[in-house]
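thought: user wants a sequence for this fold. calling inverse folding tool.
action: design(structure=
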């Protein structure tokens, strides 16, 4: 059963505010799947994106503990704001950077949406997926 507290509130009439969604993936910020997902979510939610600048598939729960992580603003259709996390950032790094640095001004996110990919990802594959690691980062 859906959580009744997670509902989109229409702001066109100036009443209420829209729920905030953070989107991350492991195939990179330029992936068609991520753009499609953001456009669909943006119809009902304020969407922010933090995703690796390059593909980081199969990085699962990996985090970068030795090198600094950078992020640069990017345009993602439908997103309120979006950042490409570089310097070897994994999906889990992107989530931590998003929550601790990039989006501190927007308040808490109502939900994190992680992973939209080409192909099927089931069974033991799920444990090594970068998007799954991103969803568990916090």
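)
observation: tool returned 138 residues.
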């Amino acid at each position: 059963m859906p959580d009744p507290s997670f509902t989109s509130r229409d702001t066109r009439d100036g009443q209420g505010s829209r729920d905030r969604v953070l989107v991350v993936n492991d195939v990179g910020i330029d992936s068609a799947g991520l753009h499609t997902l953001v456009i669909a979510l943006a119809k009902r939610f304020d969407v922010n994106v933090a995703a690796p600048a390059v593909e980081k598939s199969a990085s699962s729960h990996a985090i970068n503990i030795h090198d600094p992580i950078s992020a640069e603003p990017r345009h993602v259709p439908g997103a309120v704001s979006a950042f490409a996390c570089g310097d070897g950032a994994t999906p889990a790094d992107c989530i931590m950077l998003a929550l601790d640095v990039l989006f501190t001004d927007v308040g808490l996110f109502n939900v994190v949406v992680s992973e939209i990919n080409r192909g099927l990802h089931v069974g033991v594959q799920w444990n090594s997926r970068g998007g799954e690691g991103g969803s568990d980062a916090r």
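thought: summarizing for user.
answer: Here is the designed sequence. Residues 20-135 form a domain with the Stationary-phase Survival Protein Sure Homolog; Chain: A, fold (CATH 3.40.1210.10).
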